[in-house]
Amino acid sequence: MLNENLKRIEKIKEEITDKYVELDRLKKEVVREMLENGTKDIELENGLHETLVYVVEKKIDYEKLQKCYEDVYILGLRPSFSKTQALNSVSVQFLNKILKDCTITTKGYRLKTKKEK
């Protein structure tokens, strides 16, 4: 029974990943179509609207962090990188300098669902 449950968990994780990939693809396609048509807002049912919003997002380039600052990358590892964990071994100023160097800024449109009041 345990092995069956573990296999089922893995299968569900794969299915969820597939759904998120499909969701991301569909959202990008809708954004592209809305931009091509010059549409910034689409009214859906029940007072819901899908609106294009322009976002600027900053995130860490973990490949660069690992390549250029391997010691700090290793110090910050948990299941994923943790700034708090890395701060146990390096100063705030040094870590902030590294993270600033390894930050990527992306810009673009995203869909946002809004409900009319």
Q: In words, what does this structure look like?
A:
The protein has one domain (2-115). It has helices spanning 2-37, 62-68, 70-76, 83-86, 92-101; strands at 41-43, 48-60, 103-115. A three-stranded antiparallel beta sheet has the order 1-2-3. It is 55% helix and 25% strand. It is α+β, with helices and mostly antiparallel strands and 117 residues long. The chain contains five helices and three strands.
Cα-atom Rg, whole angstroms?
20 Å
Strand content: 15-25%
How many helical stretches? 5
Q: How are the strands of the biggest sheet laid out side by side?
A: 1-2-3
- The low-pLDDT segments are none
Give the CA-based shape: flat
Sheet of most strands: 3 strands, antiparallel
Name the helicity range: 40-55%
Order of H and E elements: HEEHHHHE
Q: In total, how many beta strands?
A: 3
The average pLDDT value, as a whole number, equals: 88
Structural class: alpha+beta
Key structural traits:
3-stranded antiparallel beta sheet, single chain, 55% helix, alpha+beta, 5 helices, 117 residues
What would a concise description of this structure say?
The protein has 117 residues and is an alpha+beta fold.
Topology:
Blueprint: H1 2-37, E1 41-43, E2 48-60, H2 62-68, H3 70-76, H4 83-86, H5 92-101, E3 103-115
Antiparallel strand pairs: 1-2, 2-3
Helix pairs in contact: 2-3
